[in-house]
Structures are given as structure tokens and as C-alpha cells.
Amino acid sequence: MEFKKEQSIYLQIVDFVHENILSGKFEEGEKITSVREMAGEIGVNPNTVMRSYTHLQEADIIYNKRGIGFFVAKDAAKNIKKNLRHHFLKKELPQIIKKMKMLEIDMAEIEKIYEKTT
Amino acid sequence: MEFKKEQSIYLQIVDFVHENILSGKFEEGEKITSVREMAGEIGVNPNTVMRSYTHLQEADIIYNKRGIGFFVAKDAAKNIKKNLRHHFLKKELPQIIKKMKMLEIDMAEIEKIYEKTT
Amino acid sequence: MEFKKEQSIYLQIVDFVHENILSGKFEEGEKITSVREMAGEIGVNPNTVMRSYTHLQEADIIYNKRGIGFFVAKDAAKNIKKNLRHHFLKKELPQIIKKMKMLEIDMAEIEKIYEKTT
Amino acid sequence: MEFKKEQSIYLQIVDFVHENILSGKFEEGEKITSVREMAGEIGVNPNTVMRSYTHLQEADIIYNKRGIGFFVAKDAAKNIKKNLRHHFLKKELPQIIKKMKMLEIDMAEIEKIYEKTT
DNA sequence: GTGGTCTAGACCACC
DNA sequence: GTGGTCTAGACCACA
User: Fold this and answer.
1) pLDDT, tens digit, for every residue of A55-79?
2) Hey, how many other C-beta atoms are within 10 angstroms of the C-beta on B77?
3) CA dihedral C91, C95, C96, C98 (to 10 degrees)
4) Which residues, other chains included, contact D89 with Cβ-Cβ below 8 Å and sequence gap of 6+?
5) Is the pTM of this model over 0.70?
6) Which residues of D touch C114 (CB under 8 A)?
7) What is the per-residue pLDDT across C53-108, written as a single tens digit (0 to 9) for each?
8) Nearest CB neighbour to B117, from listed A84, A97, A102
9) Is the CB of A69 under 7 A from strand E?
């Protein structure tokens, strides 16, 4: 797995798990890849994966059964989507729009690119 | 001035100068706020402002007259706009669109908010 | 059966047996629930129950007849009570009191709740 | 500094900072001991202290100024006390009372010890 | 096998 | 100097 240098690895792993849950690869109530296994697969230290999993656990996206592993929490997909949507619309979008106006980029240009990447 | 913790302070100062140039507050050929004065105004260590100014200087947005101060370079506004436009369209936008699709946010929603903030 | 994540499962099972003996559900000299049956009832791996029973056996609370099962030892209830009382008064209570003083919670508050839960 | 083996060191450091804030040793808005310095003082790896501080930061007890250090957040003492009181009264006390009743320890005994440790 | 914690040491960006 | 992240490796309790 390739990581971008702009964001810390452990947060990229968090996003990776998000995507796996949203896509249905990790289903509600099912066990996700163990810390060590994930670390091996993506070529990263187990501590780093552990940090990501702990982060997800505190956000109630996954939970832990002692000695068994981490499991996808109830309504995880729903909550992830809700949280990300809220963050995007309230935090990111205003800044994006502000920047667009500053740079005099209008919606027509955006839409053109949007259609192209569909 | 309030700083976001997600981005380094010196880059937020760079953006602040960008905005001032684009808005015409700092005009071409004119002297901009001195390092010390700026540091005092926004409550930051002068070293940090110096770093921002050095960064802007390397991008040919401002230039320095020794012992006098920093001045807005020729075509600064034009160049800022060109650089930021390019970065926005090529680097940021693709990621924004990818995220929009994952969260099932369509252009109609964006446009609605865009109009509202006009 | 629901388990708290703060304490290990096998110790929670130990407490569960303690309570059953103190309440008289498991009587002196009688056979207690078998390892497999207990594991099935509370939804846990038999190894985990075995560990709890071994622990209880080492504390002379239960004893084993090979091929038959585990039985409540002589004076089990009396010994449990003695051990737990000692541990509570010498180890737990001092820390509880220390915390109460730090949080400015006085005995009147405690007593009020104590009466309510009688 | 001595640590108990029953609880993880990083949580004991969290408690240690709690106490320092409650006692007024770390005052609101003031900088607390830096990660490295704290690590040296209590004889622990800086990573462990970092973990404690991150934990406290997520609980809005302290906050970070980039490159400068960690500072005590607004109303930190008030919030710590509120959280700890709530946790004690709602989570710990019911279990304590349950155990007391099981062991037939009455309030008179507790009060006697409470007075003695004043 | 699982997670959880800790150490030692490194490198980085930032102030 | 500050925090932030990551690696490597170890040890532990637990299922």
C-alpha cells in the first residue's frame, strides 16, 4: 500500500478502514483484519495499525472482543457516512468555496471536471 | 488572529499575505507590513513571520530591500492566482470530487450552498 | 451474560461463582455447573471457564473429582466472605476514600445513595 | 515516581496531571511540563508521556500550541472534577455498594475508617 | 492466536 | 527548544 506524505500513515489507515466498511468489505458485526495481519499486508509497523484501530474504537466504529480481535460496530457505515458528510459540508466546503471565489473559479468549470471523472 | 491546528502557522501567514495581495490591500511595488509589526499584530514569533516572508520571496511574490522591508513583486497578484488555480484544479479538486462521490453528495447540493454564500 | 471490558473475563466468571455460592445457589458439597455447560450458558470459550475454575480451586473454594466435576468446598462461603472482606477493607476502601476526598464527596451523599439502593 | 502494576502507566500519568490541575499546581492557561521533561522527571519513555498528553488533549483538559508546548485548557479543573464525580457516582459507587451488601459490610464500618483517615 | 503497553531510538516539521 | 510520527522489538495477560 502506498501512503501520501501529507497525511500521517495512521490516519490513512483509518480512512482505509472507513472505505472498507462503506464498501461492505467489512460487514457489521464481523471481525476485521487483525492488527498484525493488517500490518503485514500494508507493510507497516503493528504499533501504527494499533494506533489506527484505537482511534476507530474511540469513535465507536469498531469494538474489541478480548483476545479475539476487532469487530465492526453497529451502524458503523451509517455513522461514518454521517460524520464525514457533516465534516465535509460544514468544515471543508466553506473553505473550498471561499478559495474558489478568491481565484474566480466558477461552478461551470467544476461541473465540467466533475462530469469527466464520473 | 486565529490559527487552525491542521496547518502550520507559517503557511497560514503565507495565505494571509496572498489574500491581501489579491484583494488589493497590498499593492504591487508597495511595502508590506514589516516582520516585527506583523508578528505583533497576529501574536506570533517574528521568526515564524520571517519564514513566511522567505517562502513568499522564493516564490517571487515579494522581494526584499535590505534595511527597508519587503515589497510586493511585479505581477504578484497574477502569479499567485495562476499558481493557486493550477494547484486547486490539479491537486485539490480531484480529491474533493472523489470524496463527494464516496459520500454521495451531488453537484446540486454544492451549487445550492455556493449560491447561498455569494 | 455481559462482560465489562475493564476486567478480564475469567475474573468476572470467578466473581459470578462467588456470588452464586454466597447466595446459596451453589451449596457446600454440591456439584457446580460443568465447564462446558457454563461456557455454553455465558457464551464463552470453555478454556476461559476452565481457567476460572482452576483459579477457584487454588483458592480452596471448589475442588475437583476427576471425571465427575467441580464441587463446592467446605466452608467455601465463609472463606470467600473473609477473603473478600479483607481485600475490600484493606485494599479497595483506602483508595475509594482518597478519591472521595479529592472529589469532595462526603459520607452523607454516599449514605443517601446507599439507603436508596437498599 | 512509583507506578502501580494494576493500571497502565500512561493512565497513571493522566491521573497525575489531573491532580496537579486540581491542586492548582498547573494553572489554567499556563504551560505544563513538556513531554521530554516530564518523561525525565518520572523516569519513563517520552512516548508514554506523549500518549498521556494526547489522551488529555482529546478530553479537552489541555491543548497544544505548535512548537511551544501543552497548556491547561479553560475550565479544565472544573471539567475534571465534574467528569470524575460523575464516573464515581454512576459507575463505581453502585458496584461498591453491591459488594458491600454481598459482604454484609454496613455504613457504620465505613464511616469509622473514613473518620480515621481524615 | 489476540490486543495492550512500554522502551529505545530515530527523523521530521515547526516555533 | 517543542510536539508528532514511525519503526523495531520486547513482554504481558488473555481467549
Assistant:
1) 999 999 999 999 999 999 999 999 9
2) 18
3) 150
4) C105, C109, C113
5) yes
6) 97, 100, 107
7) 999 999 999 999 999 999 999 999 999 999 999 989 988 898 899 889 888 998 99
8) A97
9) yes
